[in-house]
Amino acid sequence: MSRLQEKSLPLFSLPDEQPLKPAHDAVPVSPFARPVPRPVLWLAVNLPRLGLEVFGHNDGPLIVVTGQGAARRVWIPNDTCMAAGIRPGMSLNAAFALLPDLRAAERSPLREQQALEQIAIRLGRFSPRVSCDAADMVLLEVQGSLRLFGGLERLCSDVRGVLSEPGYTTRLALAPTPLAAAWLARAGEGKPVLETAQLSGRLGGVPLSCLDWPEQLLATLAGTGVYTLSDCLRLPRDGFARRFGQQRLDMLDRALGRQADPRQAFTPPAYFADTLEFDFEVHTASALAPWIGCLLSRLQRFLLPRQLAVERVIFEVVHADHPPTRLPLGLASPSCDGAYIGGLMAVILERLVLPAPANALCLRSGTPLPLRQDSAGLFDADPDQPADRHGLRELVGRLRIRLGDAAVYGTHLVAEHRPEVAWRRGGASGDGVSPVPAMRPTWMLDVPRALEIVRERPWYCGRLQIESGPERIETGWWDDAPVSRDYYIAVNPDGARLWIYRERRKTARWFLHGVFG
Amino acid sequence: MKPLPQALLDQAGLWRARNGVQRVATIATGYPELDRQLPGGGWPLGALTELIVGHYGIGELRLFLPALSALSRQCDRRLMWVAPPHEPYAPALAAAGLDISRHLVVRPEQSRDVLWAAEQGLRSGCCAAVLLWIERLSGREARRLQLAAESGAAWGLVFRPPAAAREHSPAALRLEMSVGSGERCLRILKARGGRPAVLDGLQWLAH
Questions:
Q1: Nearest-CA neighbor of A365 among A268, A294, A274, A289?
Q2: In b/e form, how buried is each residue of A268-302, taking b as 16+ CB within 10 angstroms?
Q3: Which residues on neighbouring strands pair with residue A273, listed in sequence order?
Q4: CA spacing 20 to 30 A to B195: which of A267, A355, B6, B152?
């Protein structure tokens, strides 16, 4: 049988091992030439205890169980339970007999999936090709990222660092094919495999239980004395395919690099949405601050690697028996800075009164926009400028949150002769056109105020004395607000200078329009 | 003379005459007659200036326009208008030399938000001047604004009704403007480091 293996499973060599043609060799390149595949290196991040770790990190005895009814078995016990002698595969009753105050949690594939997606989003900063097909594994293609992150060791320690903060147990492995990397990671083989040629040798020791194959198949193989991959590779190809299916053989081929293994890239969701459930009820709004900070740092990790920013976020405080409290927050400019959004949320929290105790908090983002960042000057000639821009954004944000968007505005000039439309409200920073040179009052009434007429003269806190005028403004016939007025500057007995006008219509009423402040 | 014990010198409440008046940054008012009367030769920046005015339209804004226009062109900081009585008319202000793009108008609906917004603006450090119109301002609130103006190096300008003239105020400069028999009169009620004065006539303030 061992001679058969030599013949039927020859080691494969990738075409990229052929030397590339030197550039000065002036042979015209045929448009049909096959592109040379780029060397690839897959980093597998295995999370062996994910099923347990999604239930939090307290030290109390906790096990995760699988199965139904009486067939429920311990799947993963935590360290406290391991110390008490509880092992995976034990029946639930046996576990309770060993530790009566045990907490048993049903396995939650949904939570695992969400956690895995969060991990994939976090790892997205290391590589554009992330795949998470398996339930306990995230795969990254890192060959192209090695230089940027300073080599294999630095990259691996960075990956571990990113995952150690949420407290996940990880096992990493590197191999030229994704399946080989995944199996090596499950088997705990940390030493990287860099060459395809080394694969069959290094994979040999991997037990078949790391392969995600059905229990029944593994039992059959064990019955024939096949326990590890090297045992398996010694079997004849055609016989193996006939007995265990072509797909299993293809899988082995893909793992050894004899067949291509295209992977579906993980696409992060278009929006950010996350929920934090509290272990206890929260009664005061200010106590929500740490959870808000946690969600915002997740939001930042979601946005920043993809160079995105949001203009709007919505927090939802979930209550047990009350509709959720919605806290929408609009930002003055798109941002991905969690601390900045947290500062704005603090303004909202100050005034928030919870209608009922809260037991969860959701955060949803609006449509992410491309992040635009200003570059700071190299020489700090104008030290307050960058800080100032940041400060202004924060100031406008805070004011808008408390007072409403309409209460905070900048002004812009409009090239227009009608006084009421010669300006408009705009964003908090405007840019202007050249002003009208005519004499205009510094205060303008929102709506012109009709003046009393006493003894045929206009009256406003006393009889008005016309100082100068008229200035005729007759324009705007092309739209809905035509104007035909004679403007005068008048002074009342209090010494106030006013800008008044008389309509050039039959009624000829007098109006106060502005004040020279 | 024996030196004072150190424990006494460390007391924050002890003020010695030789400490003198702190030099404050000022900006020229644009009216030389007024500059001569003011300590430091101009409006004190990083502090509160109060103008008590009976009614609008007697030149109360024109008094400050040259300084505001200089400030708006000096640095990339805003002019914030909090709760103005009417709309500050952009074309007229632009004609007076103000940089309109630096304007930030805040019109809170509730009166209790007016002080909050003004304090935010003064403290933020990104407003060169904050103009505030308010009816009632207690000594404590004025003190708060004064501190905010100091910390944000902003010029706080508060416009108040005549009743405020009798109240105490921690503002660095207090002025009262009035019109009697057709003549404008500007009274300096209080000037930190200067002395009260009355300016009559005010021909220079006309138009």
A1: A274
A2: beeebebebeeeeebeebeebeebbeebbebbbbb
A3: A364
A4: B152
Question: What DSSP string runs through A153-213?
Answer: HHHHHHHHHHHHTTT---EEEEESSHHHHHHHHHHT--S----GGGHHHHHTT-BGGGG--
Contact A388 B117 (CB under 8 A): no
Q: Under an 8 A CB cutoff, do B120 and A398 touch?
A: yes
Closest Cα partner for B111 from A407, A397, A445, A398? Answer: A407
Name the nearest CA neighbour of A266 among A149, A123, A370, A136.
A123
Enter the ipTM.
0.81
CB distance A184 to A173 below 8 Å? yes
Q: Give the one of A394, A423, A496 whose C-beta lies nearest to B89's C-beta.
A: A423
CA distance A136 to A486: 80
Residue in chain B nearest A435 by alpha carbon: B91
Q: What is the pLDDT of residue B21?
A: 54
What does the block give as tokens for A454? 């006493």
d(CA A386, CA A425): 25
CB–CB of A443 and B104 under 8 A?
no
B50-107 tens-digit pLDDT: 999 888 888 888 889 889 988 888 877 888 999 998 888 888 888 888 888 888 899 9
* pLDDT tens track for B31-43: 888 888 888 888 9
CB-nearest to B126 from A391, A403, A436 is A391
Are the CB atoms for A310 and A344 separated by under 8 Å? Answer: no
Tokens at residue A129, please?
Answer: 């090709």
**Residues of chain A with C-beta less than 8 angstroms from the C-beta of B55:** 461, 494, 496
Classify residue A97 as left (phi > 0), alpha (psi -120 to 50) or beta.
alpha
Pairing of strands B155-160, A443-450: unpaired
Q: Which amino acid is at A393?
A: R
- Cα A278 from Cα A294, distance rounded (Å): 12
pLDDT at B51: 92
Query: Which of A303-307, A345-349, B11-15 shows the lowest per-residue confidence on average (mean pLDDT)?
Result: B11-15
The predicted structure's pLDDT at residue B131: 93
Distance CA A247, CA A224 (A): 20
* A interface test, pick of B100, B130, B133 with most A CB neighbours within 10 Å: B100
List of chain B residues whose C-beta atoms are within 8 Å of the C-beta of residue A435: 90-92, 94-95, 100
What's the burial of A148, exposed, middle or buried (CB within 10 Å: 0-12/13-18/19+)? exposed
- State which residue of chain B sits closest to A397, comparing Cα positions: B120
Strand duo A408-413 + A423-426: pairing: antiparallel
Task: Say whether B62 and A412 touch across the interface (CB within 8 A).
Answer: no
Please judge whether B90 and A422 are an interchain contact, meaning their C-beta atoms are less than 8 angstroms apart. yes
| pTM of the complete model | 0.61
Tokens describing residue A103: 């907490």
B104–A396 C-beta distance less than 8 A:
yes
Q: Does residue B5 contact residue B14 with C-beta atoms inside 8 Å?
A: no
Residue with more model confidence, A172 or B25: A172
- B153 at interface of A, judged by CB pairs closer than 8 A: no
